[in-house]
Amino acid sequence: MIEEGIAGKLDIQDLPNSSTTFRIADFGCSVGPNTFIAMKNIIQALDLKYNSHYHQTAGGLVSTDNVNTTPDYHVSFSDNTFNDFNTLFASLPERKYLVSGVPGSFYNRLFPRDSLHFVHTSSALHFLSGVLKEVVDINSPAWNNGRIHYTNAPDEVAAAYTAQHSVDMKAFLCARAQEIVCGGLMVMLIPAIPDGTSPSLRHPGILSDLLGSCLMDMAKMGLVDEDKVDLFNLPVYSTSPKEVKDAVENNGCFSIERIELNNSSNIAQIYGDHERAVGEGIIKEYFGNDITEKLFELYPKKLADSLSILASGKSTLLFVLLKRNKATAAE
């Protein structure tokens, strides 16, 4: 779908400052290898686009042999400051692009204005900008006692997560609108749920619920303080197509070129990605190494004991292709 988007929606002739250097950013890159695969596919699609454009402008009569028809590609890998960029750079494959690393939260602006031609983010936008204060406040109606996620939680908890996601999406789109040139593209791949669907019926919610169950089991065994568990919530939210559409329309700087919710069948990979994402980042930062290691000894056992629950759920990934409007200015 990314290749189709580049072929059909990227107008390189009208793209500012792209004749010599084409700038790409991958937000939420982690340490690879998925980001490298994505960049390889994007570069290949761009090569085809530039070669096709060269043939068209030359009337199809000029061979591309010994002619440089493509610009330099500059890829910026971006993730939070706790990301292991050393491992990322040490794992870089042979490539046709220049590389830089940009640490920081993608809910803030990280690049100069009008500097990016293509933005990619995959399985990252379901992470909120931080833990919600109201869900860990004992005096709040949204206090999420005994759980670490909004799955199967009271309505007040779910409403707090939804409100924070709305704020975060607004910030993300505003930052990207300032960074992406007019006519530039942005691809977002987001773990999501269909409109009107309960998160308890989808794998992200089920997995978070099982992870919370592991922590509560550890608290009962005296391995971790229960109060500490009550003060922890996963800042992870499964959005819906309507929520994303509304956020884009409210921003006003992008046109939706394609939005599609697809089933994901690689459940084993989903399990692995979920464990790494939370285990190497948020949980370890809050609970420390020892608790985290014990937690992820118990977690696979909990998964194995819950196969019937997992089999009843589904995983869906939202594909969104946006194009930066030419007539709107980002604030």
TrEMBL record:
SUPFAM superfamilies, alphabetized: S-adenosyl-L-methionine-dependent methyltransferases
GO molecular function term, any single one: methyltransferase activity
Pfam families in UniProt: Methyltransf_7 (PF03492)
Keyword terms: Magnesium, Metal-binding
Protein name in UniProt: S-adenosylmethionine-dependent methyltransferase
Record organism: Papaver atlanticum
